[in-house]
Automatic annotation (TrEMBL):
Keywords: Transferase. This is Uncharacterized protein. InterPro entries: UDP_glucos_trans (IPR002213). PANTHER family: GLYCOSYLTRANSFERASE (PTHR48044:SF39). CDD domains: GT1_Gtf-like (cd03784). The lineage of its organism: Eukaryota, Viridiplantae, Streptophyta, Embryophyta, Tracheophyta. One of its GO terms (biological process) is carbohydrate derivative metabolic process. GO terms for molecular function: UDP-glycosyltransferase activity.
Length: 311
Protein backbone atom coordinates (compact mmCIF):
# COMPACT_ATOMS: atom_id res chain seq x y z
CA UNK A 1 0.00 0.00 0.00
CA UNK A 2 2.90 2.36 0.83
CA UNK A 3 4.41 1.69 -2.61
CA UNK A 4 1.10 2.57 -4.25
CA UNK A 5 0.82 5.76 -2.18
CA UNK A 6 4.38 6.76 -3.14
CA UNK A 7 3.58 6.20 -6.83
CA UNK A 8 0.50 8.43 -6.54
CA UNK A 9 2.51 11.15 -4.81
CA UNK A 10 5.18 11.07 -7.52
CA UNK A 11 2.52 11.24 -10.25
CA UNK A 12 0.85 14.14 -8.45
CA UNK A 13 4.08 16.16 -8.28
CA UNK A 14 4.86 15.53 -11.96
CA UNK A 15 1.32 16.47 -12.96
CA UNK A 16 1.56 19.71 -11.01
CA UNK A 17 4.51 20.76 -13.18
CA UNK A 18 2.61 19.83 -16.34
CA UNK A 19 -0.52 21.79 -15.39
CA UNK A 20 1.40 24.98 -14.60
CA UNK A 21 2.43 25.55 -18.21
CA UNK A 22 -0.74 25.39 -20.36
CA UNK A 23 -3.09 26.20 -17.43
CA UNK A 24 -6.15 24.47 -18.97
CA UNK A 25 -9.68 25.78 -18.45
CA UNK A 26 -10.91 22.36 -17.35
CA UNK A 27 -9.59 18.98 -16.24
CA UNK A 28 -11.45 15.70 -16.79
CA UNK A 29 -10.06 12.75 -14.85
CA UNK A 30 -11.02 9.12 -14.32
CA UNK A 31 -10.83 6.51 -11.58
CA UNK A 32 -7.08 6.10 -11.91
CA UNK A 33 -6.20 9.73 -11.15
CA UNK A 34 -8.26 10.94 -8.15
CA UNK A 35 -5.27 13.00 -7.04
CA UNK A 36 -5.48 15.02 -10.29
CA UNK A 37 -8.51 16.90 -8.94
CA UNK A 38 -6.55 18.20 -5.96
CA UNK A 39 -3.74 19.38 -8.20
CA UNK A 40 -6.21 21.16 -10.50
CA UNK A 41 -7.93 22.78 -7.53
CA UNK A 42 -4.63 24.21 -6.29
CA UNK A 43 -4.40 26.05 -9.62
CA UNK A 44 -8.06 27.14 -9.55
CA UNK A 45 -8.91 24.77 -12.41
CA UNK A 46 -12.29 22.98 -12.23
CA UNK A 47 -11.96 19.18 -12.29
CA UNK A 48 -14.67 16.74 -13.33
CA UNK A 49 -14.72 12.99 -12.79
CA UNK A 50 -15.76 10.82 -15.72
CA UNK A 51 -16.71 7.22 -15.07
CA UNK A 52 -15.18 5.21 -17.88
CA UNK A 53 -17.47 2.21 -17.49
CA UNK A 54 -21.17 1.49 -17.07
CA UNK A 55 -22.49 2.51 -13.65
CA UNK A 56 -24.35 0.04 -11.36
CA UNK A 57 -27.50 2.20 -11.25
CA UNK A 58 -30.09 -0.54 -10.61
CA UNK A 59 -28.18 -1.87 -7.60
CA UNK A 60 -27.97 1.63 -6.12
CA UNK A 61 -31.64 2.38 -6.76
CA UNK A 62 -32.75 -0.71 -4.86
CA UNK A 63 -31.15 0.56 -1.66
CA UNK A 64 -32.66 3.04 0.81
CA UNK A 65 -31.79 6.71 0.72
CA UNK A 66 -29.20 6.74 3.53
CA UNK A 67 -25.63 7.56 2.58
CA UNK A 68 -24.22 4.38 4.11
CA UNK A 69 -26.58 2.33 1.93
CA UNK A 70 -25.26 4.13 -1.14
CA UNK A 71 -21.71 3.37 -0.09
CA UNK A 72 -22.63 -0.28 0.44
CA UNK A 73 -24.18 -0.50 -3.02
CA UNK A 74 -21.22 1.17 -4.69
CA UNK A 75 -18.79 -1.09 -2.84
CA UNK A 76 -20.62 -4.18 -3.98
CA UNK A 77 -20.03 -3.24 -7.62
CA UNK A 78 -16.24 -3.20 -7.39
CA UNK A 79 -14.13 -6.27 -6.70
CA UNK A 80 -10.92 -4.68 -5.49
CA UNK A 81 -10.86 -2.79 -2.17
CA UNK A 82 -8.25 -0.28 -3.29
CA UNK A 83 -10.30 0.42 -6.38
CA UNK A 84 -13.35 1.11 -4.16
CA UNK A 85 -11.44 3.78 -2.27
CA UNK A 86 -10.25 5.44 -5.46
CA UNK A 87 -13.78 5.34 -6.89
CA UNK A 88 -15.26 7.23 -3.94
CA UNK A 89 -12.37 9.65 -3.77
CA UNK A 90 -12.64 10.40 -7.49
CA UNK A 91 -16.37 11.02 -7.23
CA UNK A 92 -16.21 13.18 -4.11
CA UNK A 93 -13.52 15.46 -5.57
CA UNK A 94 -15.46 16.19 -8.76
CA UNK A 95 -16.63 19.79 -9.18
CA UNK A 96 -20.43 19.90 -8.90
CA UNK A 97 -20.98 17.43 -11.75
CA UNK A 98 -19.98 13.85 -12.59
CA UNK A 99 -19.88 12.48 -16.13
CA UNK A 100 -21.12 8.90 -16.44
CA UNK A 101 -21.24 6.49 -19.35
CA UNK A 102 -24.97 5.95 -19.80
CA UNK A 103 -28.12 7.27 -21.49
CA UNK A 104 -30.89 9.30 -19.90
CA UNK A 105 -33.25 7.50 -22.28
CA UNK A 106 -32.54 4.25 -20.40
CA UNK A 107 -31.58 5.30 -16.89
CA UNK A 108 -33.28 8.63 -16.24
CA UNK A 109 -34.72 7.72 -12.81
CA UNK A 110 -31.41 6.26 -11.63
CA UNK A 111 -29.52 9.36 -12.75
CA UNK A 112 -31.89 11.66 -10.86
CA UNK A 113 -31.79 9.43 -7.78
CA UNK A 114 -28.00 9.31 -7.66
CA UNK A 115 -27.78 13.08 -8.17
CA UNK A 116 -29.76 13.58 -4.96
CA UNK A 117 -27.70 11.05 -3.02
CA UNK A 118 -24.25 12.40 -3.93
CA UNK A 119 -25.40 16.04 -4.14
CA UNK A 120 -23.81 16.44 -7.55
CA UNK A 121 -25.35 16.71 -11.00
CA UNK A 122 -24.98 13.42 -12.88
CA UNK A 123 -24.47 14.09 -16.59
CA UNK A 124 -24.82 11.15 -19.03
CA UNK A 125 -22.29 11.15 -21.85
CA UNK A 126 -23.73 8.31 -23.94
CA UNK A 127 -22.04 4.99 -24.71
CA UNK A 128 -18.66 6.28 -25.96
CA UNK A 129 -18.30 3.13 -28.05
CA UNK A 130 -15.41 3.03 -30.51
CA UNK A 131 -15.19 0.69 -33.48
CA UNK A 132 -12.57 -1.96 -32.93
CA UNK A 133 -9.53 -1.71 -35.20
CA UNK A 134 -8.07 -5.05 -34.11
CA UNK A 135 -8.64 -7.70 -36.78
CA UNK A 136 -7.24 -10.51 -34.64
CA UNK A 137 -10.63 -12.27 -34.49
CA UNK A 138 -11.87 -11.49 -37.98
CA UNK A 139 -12.64 -15.20 -38.42
CA UNK A 140 -15.41 -14.81 -35.84
CA UNK A 141 -17.21 -12.32 -38.08
CA UNK A 142 -16.79 -14.69 -41.02
CA UNK A 143 -18.27 -17.46 -38.84
CA UNK A 144 -21.26 -15.22 -38.06
CA UNK A 145 -21.67 -14.44 -41.77
CA UNK A 146 -22.53 -18.10 -42.33
CA UNK A 147 -25.27 -18.16 -39.68
CA UNK A 148 -28.94 -17.31 -40.09
CA UNK A 149 -30.22 -13.91 -38.99
CA UNK A 150 -30.64 -13.57 -35.20
CA UNK A 151 -29.59 -17.20 -34.68
CA UNK A 152 -26.51 -16.72 -32.46
CA UNK A 153 -26.04 -15.57 -28.89
CA UNK A 154 -23.07 -13.59 -27.55
CA UNK A 155 -22.00 -14.51 -24.02
CA UNK A 156 -19.70 -12.18 -22.07
CA UNK A 157 -19.50 -11.35 -18.37
CA UNK A 158 -17.35 -8.23 -18.72
CA UNK A 159 -13.70 -7.68 -17.97
CA UNK A 160 -13.97 -7.55 -14.18
CA UNK A 161 -15.99 -10.67 -13.36
CA UNK A 162 -14.46 -14.12 -13.53
CA UNK A 163 -16.67 -17.18 -13.48
CA UNK A 164 -15.98 -19.89 -10.94
CA UNK A 165 -15.37 -23.46 -12.09
CA UNK A 166 -18.97 -24.32 -11.16
CA UNK A 167 -20.37 -21.33 -13.08
CA UNK A 168 -18.33 -22.23 -16.18
CA UNK A 169 -19.78 -25.74 -16.02
CA UNK A 170 -23.36 -24.47 -15.77
CA UNK A 171 -22.99 -21.89 -18.56
CA UNK A 172 -21.37 -24.49 -20.81
CA UNK A 173 -24.11 -27.05 -20.24
CA UNK A 174 -26.77 -24.34 -20.62
CA UNK A 175 -25.38 -23.37 -24.01
CA UNK A 176 -25.21 -27.01 -25.02
CA UNK A 177 -28.82 -27.65 -23.96
CA UNK A 178 -30.06 -24.54 -25.80
CA UNK A 179 -28.88 -25.94 -29.14
CA UNK A 180 -28.34 -22.41 -30.53
CA UNK A 181 -25.22 -20.92 -32.09
CA UNK A 182 -23.03 -19.03 -29.63
CA UNK A 183 -19.87 -17.00 -29.12
CA UNK A 184 -18.61 -17.21 -25.54
CA UNK A 185 -15.86 -14.95 -24.20
CA UNK A 186 -14.05 -16.69 -21.34
CA UNK A 187 -11.68 -14.72 -19.11
CA UNK A 188 -9.36 -15.81 -16.30
CA UNK A 189 -7.69 -13.60 -13.66
CA UNK A 190 -4.27 -12.21 -14.61
CA UNK A 191 -1.55 -14.63 -13.60
CA UNK A 192 -3.70 -17.76 -13.70
CA UNK A 193 -2.41 -20.06 -16.42
CA UNK A 194 -5.50 -22.06 -17.27
CA UNK A 195 -6.20 -23.71 -20.59
CA UNK A 196 -9.76 -23.20 -21.84
CA UNK A 197 -10.07 -26.90 -22.60
CA UNK A 198 -9.28 -27.71 -18.97
CA UNK A 199 -11.87 -25.26 -17.61
CA UNK A 200 -14.70 -26.57 -19.78
CA UNK A 201 -16.67 -29.79 -19.30
CA UNK A 202 -15.03 -32.83 -20.85
CA UNK A 203 -15.52 -33.05 -24.65
CA UNK A 204 -17.70 -29.89 -24.60
CA UNK A 205 -16.04 -28.36 -27.67
CA UNK A 206 -16.37 -31.66 -29.52
CA UNK A 207 -20.08 -31.93 -28.74
CA UNK A 208 -21.05 -28.38 -29.74
CA UNK A 209 -18.83 -28.50 -32.82
CA UNK A 210 -19.49 -25.84 -35.45
CA UNK A 211 -22.38 -24.44 -33.41
CA UNK A 212 -20.11 -22.67 -30.91
CA UNK A 213 -17.01 -20.51 -30.74
CA UNK A 214 -15.04 -19.67 -27.59
CA UNK A 215 -12.68 -16.70 -27.33
CA UNK A 216 -10.25 -16.09 -24.51
CA UNK A 217 -9.81 -12.59 -23.09
CA UNK A 218 -10.62 -10.10 -25.85
CA UNK A 219 -13.38 -10.08 -28.48
CA UNK A 220 -14.54 -7.63 -31.19
CA UNK A 221 -17.67 -6.97 -29.14
CA UNK A 222 -19.01 -4.01 -31.10
CA UNK A 223 -18.79 -5.91 -34.40
CA UNK A 224 -20.40 -9.01 -32.91
CA UNK A 225 -23.29 -7.14 -31.32
CA UNK A 226 -24.23 -5.26 -34.46
CA UNK A 227 -23.97 -8.32 -36.71
CA UNK A 228 -27.40 -9.41 -38.05
CA UNK A 229 -26.73 -13.02 -37.02
CA UNK A 230 -26.47 -12.05 -33.33
CA UNK A 231 -29.89 -12.58 -31.76
CA UNK A 232 -29.13 -12.08 -28.08
CA UNK A 233 -26.52 -11.29 -25.45
CA UNK A 234 -26.47 -11.66 -21.60
CA UNK A 235 -25.15 -8.26 -20.47
CA UNK A 236 -26.32 -6.03 -17.59
CA UNK A 237 -29.29 -8.38 -17.25
CA UNK A 238 -31.38 -6.47 -14.73
CA UNK A 239 -31.25 -3.26 -16.72
CA UNK A 240 -31.96 -4.72 -20.15
CA UNK A 241 -34.89 -6.72 -18.80
CA UNK A 242 -36.36 -3.61 -17.15
CA UNK A 243 -36.37 -1.68 -20.42
CA UNK A 244 -37.77 -4.70 -22.28
CA UNK A 245 -34.79 -5.58 -24.47
CA UNK A 246 -33.67 -8.71 -22.66
CA UNK A 247 -34.55 -11.52 -20.26
CA UNK A 248 -32.53 -12.15 -17.11
CA UNK A 249 -31.17 -15.59 -16.24
CA UNK A 250 -32.37 -15.88 -12.67
CA UNK A 251 -29.98 -17.32 -10.08
CA UNK A 252 -31.21 -19.48 -7.22
CA UNK A 253 -31.47 -18.27 -3.60
CA UNK A 254 -27.76 -19.05 -3.13
CA UNK A 255 -26.78 -16.95 -6.14
CA UNK A 256 -25.98 -19.95 -8.34
CA UNK A 257 -26.57 -20.28 -12.06
CA UNK A 258 -28.32 -23.39 -13.38
CA UNK A 259 -27.91 -24.84 -16.85
CA UNK A 260 -31.63 -25.50 -17.34
CA UNK A 261 -32.50 -21.86 -16.58
CA UNK A 262 -29.75 -20.63 -18.91
CA UNK A 263 -31.01 -22.84 -21.74
CA UNK A 264 -34.62 -21.78 -21.13
CA UNK A 265 -33.84 -18.06 -21.30
CA UNK A 266 -31.67 -18.48 -24.40
CA UNK A 267 -34.57 -20.30 -26.04
CA UNK A 268 -36.98 -17.48 -25.20
CA UNK A 269 -34.67 -14.83 -26.66
CA UNK A 270 -33.38 -16.59 -29.78
CA UNK A 271 -35.92 -19.28 -30.69
CA UNK A 272 -39.37 -18.46 -29.35
CA UNK A 273 -41.68 -15.51 -30.11
CA UNK A 274 -40.29 -13.70 -27.07
CA UNK A 275 -37.15 -13.16 -29.08
CA UNK A 276 -39.04 -11.26 -31.76
CA UNK A 277 -40.56 -8.98 -29.12
CA UNK A 278 -37.18 -8.37 -27.49
CA UNK A 279 -35.50 -7.60 -30.82
CA UNK A 280 -38.32 -5.25 -31.84
CA UNK A 281 -38.02 -3.34 -28.56
CA UNK A 282 -34.24 -3.27 -28.91
CA UNK A 283 -34.61 -1.79 -32.40
CA UNK A 284 -37.01 0.86 -31.10
CA UNK A 285 -34.67 1.72 -28.23
CA UNK A 286 -31.69 1.94 -30.58
CA UNK A 287 -33.56 4.50 -32.68
CA UNK A 288 -34.45 6.55 -29.61
CA UNK A 289 -30.82 6.51 -28.47
CA UNK A 290 -29.65 7.53 -31.94
CA UNK A 291 -31.98 10.53 -31.94
CA UNK A 292 -31.16 11.56 -28.36
CA UNK A 293 -27.43 10.90 -28.66
CA UNK A 294 -26.59 14.23 -30.26
CA UNK A 295 -28.75 16.09 -27.75
CA UNK A 296 -26.88 14.51 -24.84
CA UNK A 297 -23.52 15.35 -26.41
CA UNK A 298 -24.58 19.00 -26.72
CA UNK A 299 -25.77 18.87 -23.09
CA UNK A 300 -22.36 17.67 -21.87
CA UNK A 301 -20.60 20.47 -23.73
CA UNK A 302 -22.96 23.09 -22.28
CA UNK A 303 -22.45 21.80 -18.73
CA UNK A 304 -18.66 21.93 -19.06
CA UNK A 305 -18.70 25.39 -20.63
CA UNK A 306 -20.86 26.73 -17.79
CA UNK A 307 -18.52 25.18 -15.26
CA UNK A 308 -15.51 26.93 -16.81
CA UNK A 309 -17.33 30.29 -16.81
CA UNK A 310 -18.01 30.07 -13.09
CA UNK A 311 -14.30 30.00 -12.26
Amino acid sequence: MSTLKTAFEMASHSFDDIVKTPKPDLLIYDLNQPWAAAVASSHNIPAVHQSGKEFPFPEIYLHEHEGNKLREALHSSVNDVKEEDRFHEAMERSCNIVLIKTFRTIEDKYINYLSVLVEKKIVPVGPLVQDAVNDEHEEIIKWLDKKDEASAIFVSFGSEYFLSKEEIEEVAHGLELSKVNFIWVVRFPVGEKIKIEEALPERFLERVGERGRILEGWSPQAKILRHPSTGGFPLNARMVEEVGVGIEVVRDKNGRLHREEIAKVIGKVVVENGGEIVRRKASELREKIRIKGEEETVGVVEELVQLCRKV
